[in-house]
Specification:
six-stranded parallel beta sheet; Rossmann fold; alpha/beta; 2 domains
Length: 274
């Protein structure tokens, strides 16, 4: 049995395109509808109540596109807004659990780092999941609130002096702690992974949350006979298009999507709430 409906993916901004990139590598036949709430990015400095409300609006927009599952390609939503997924009529995947499982599988010295937005780090969601899988793990978590604005502003090239200095300022505690595995707990962060890796050194494995979640979705589709057989299509929706949109999206996704993006007004988004 095949299911050719698309997979729905949402994020607070463009960072979730790094997840779409991994999905396209592994799930070559699957169509995808992406929604980036670029008008309200970042979610990481909002209250859990507000993040949950935004997530519900994002999810219901995707449901109007007849998706067969929804992926919250946002570390903040995955960490603090689990309640937003309750009652969804389709399967839902978050980013925390697959990332924690991957980190536990990779670490050699049981010292694991987590970086994310303030909301993600304060939720301790990654730490709780890691410790449930590996009780002896030593976890160092650091909030990096400036990373998302840097990515959305397009300051993502390796060697950029502002980004390099910001990475060094935030990640010093992780290097001092001797972590050998680092979860990039926000889907924007793979855009500056080269800078992060250069600072942390070759002995540290970076976890891009998009890879383990793509593998988990692939297994789910195979187990439940929900894989697609029709040619894949890709649609992209955002709530705002800044001047640097095209260049940032091209870097995050690895291709130009300028002519495939539609802008949705925020009032339209909220009106579609049930």
């Amino acid at each position: 049995m095949a299911d050719n409906r698309p997979i729905g993916v949402f994020d607070s901004g463009l960072g979730g395109l790094t997840v779409v990139r991994e999905l396209k590598k592994i799930l070559k036949n699957e169509s995808i509808v992406y929604f980036g709430d670029t008008a309200r990015v970042p979610y990481g400095n909002r209250s859990a109540q507000t993040v949950c409300r935004y997530a519900k609006e994002d999810e219901h927009f995707l449901l109007t596109k007849n998706v067969k599952m929804i992926i919250a390609a946002c570390g903040t939503v995955s960490s603090v807004a689990g309640a937003a997924a309750k009652g969804l009529p389709v399967p839902y995947f978050e980013m925390v659990t697959p990332a924690a499982e991957a980190a536990v599988a990779q670490t050699q010295n049981q010292k694991i780092g987590v970086i994310g937005t303030a909301a993600t780090v304060n939720s301790k969601a990654h730490a709780k999941k890691i410790l449930s899988l590996l009780p002896t793990a030593q976890i160092t978590a650091v909030s990096c609130p400036l990373f998302v604005p840097l990515v959305e502003a397009g300051w993502i090239q390796k060697g950029d002096p502002v980004t390099t200095a910001t990475v060094a300022r935030y990640l010093q505690p992780l290097r001092q702690a001797g972590v050998d595995t680092l979860i990039m707990g926000c889907t924007h962060y793979p855009a500056i992974a080269e800078t992060i890796a250069a600072y942390m050194g070759p002995g540290v494995q970076l976890i891009n949350m998009g890879t383990p979640v793509a593998k988990k979705v692939d297994r789910f589709l195979q187990q439940h006979g929900l894989g697609a057989t029709a040619p894949a299509t890709y649609r992209y929706y955002v709530t705002d298009r800044m001047d640097s949109f095209s260049s940032i999206a091209a870097v995050l996704l690895g291709e130009n999507i300028e002519d495939r993006v539609q802008t949705i007004e925020l009032n339209q988004l909220t009106e579609e709430q049930p």
